[in-house]
Amino acid sequence: MKTKPIDLAVIGGTGLADLENLEITHREVVHTPYGEPSGPITHGMLAGHHVIFVPRHGAAFRIPPHRVNYRANLWALRHLGAAQILAVNAVGGIRDDLSPGRLAVPDQIIDYTWGRCHTFFEDDLDRIVHIDFTFPYSQPLRGEIIGAGKDADIDIADSGTYATSQGPRLESAAEVDAMATAGADMVGMTGMPETALARELDLSYASCAVVSNRAAGRGEGPITMDEILRNLDRGMKDVRLLLEHLVVRL
Ligand code: HPA
Fold first, then answer.
1. Cβ neighbours for 202, distance < 8 A, ≥ 6 positions apart
2. Is residue 53 scored above 50 in pLDDT?
3. Residue 127 C-alpha to ligand 1 middle, in angstroms?
4. Among 20, 33, 92, 245, which residue's CB has the most CB atoms within a 10 Å radius?
């Protein structure tokens, strides 16, 4: 039996360990030259389209942001034939309109991470490679995500700069102020190196960020995991709906 080509790969973030609306056909274990992905890759059908899914933090939500094997996840998705990747990322909102529960499609990124395996281009090179990263996300895919949001009547911020912090701790209020001064609108822990690695593999990659809290110092009181997970639960309902509209557009 011939399997249908893959229309979309989804990398799920915090709060999205599975896609409830995906009719699962099978799970596939992929070993990569870069080690093991966050788990088996789930294949399924969504609105008649072949979608594959990997939860970035593992099915049991045990892999913290700085320990995710970003290279293995992306390599595995490409190996299976995915060309378009939707990354779902939980973020803290820095910009005022990025309130908890809202979705945003970032168009720029700043990398504050360190010590993560951040490139495919380091060993056994014929020559040094510098990828262009002026516009870090696929503009066509961003457009389709924003369009799908409109189709589904979901309130989505259509631009923003994503600052990637190292984690797993949250930021200090001063760090968030410094990020805002640098131009950041939201802060998360998983945007990098994933976004750059996707470009190195020539994948069409874009992010749907889900605001789980106001960033440190921008809301009332301390940020709790309880608050983060509650708001993500709300936002992820919109993400699942958005996906149904997105796959038919691709
Ligand atoms: N900071 C960093 N990462 C996050 C946050 C935050 O406030 N919320 C969800 N992921």
1. none
2. yes
3. 37
4. 92
Tokens of 175: 């760090």
Note down the domain range covering 150: 8-249
Give the pLDDT band (50/70/90) at residue 2. low
Q: Please tell me the predicted confidence (pLDDT) of residue 158.
A: 98
Residue 135 lies in a domain: yes
* Residue 202 in tokens: 């020539």
Q: If you take atom 2 of ligand 1, which residue's CA is the nearest one?
A: 188
* Domains: count for the chain: 1
User: Ligand 1 pocket, 236 CB below 6 A?
Assistant: no
pLDDT at 17: 80
Q: Are strands 103-104 and 8-12 parallel, antiparallel or unpaired?
A: unpaired
Domain of 26, CATH number, reads 3.40.50.1580
- pLDDT confidence bin for 1, thresholds 50/70/90: very low
Count CB neighbours of 39 within 10 A: 21
Give the C-alpha separation, 88 to 38, whole Å: 15
Q: How far is the CA of 90 from the centre of ligand 1 (A)?
A: 6
Question: Which of 167, 207, 160 is CA-nearest to residue 185?
Answer: 160
pLDDT computed for residue 16 by the predictor: 84
Ligand 1 close to Cβ of residue 190 (< 6 A): no
* The model's pTM: 0.97
Q: What angle do CA 9, 211, 192 make, to 5 degrees?
A: 55
Inside any domain, residue 162: yes
> Is residue 125, in this structure, part of any structural domain at all?
yes
pLDDT confidence of 97, banded at 50, 70, 90?
Answer: very high
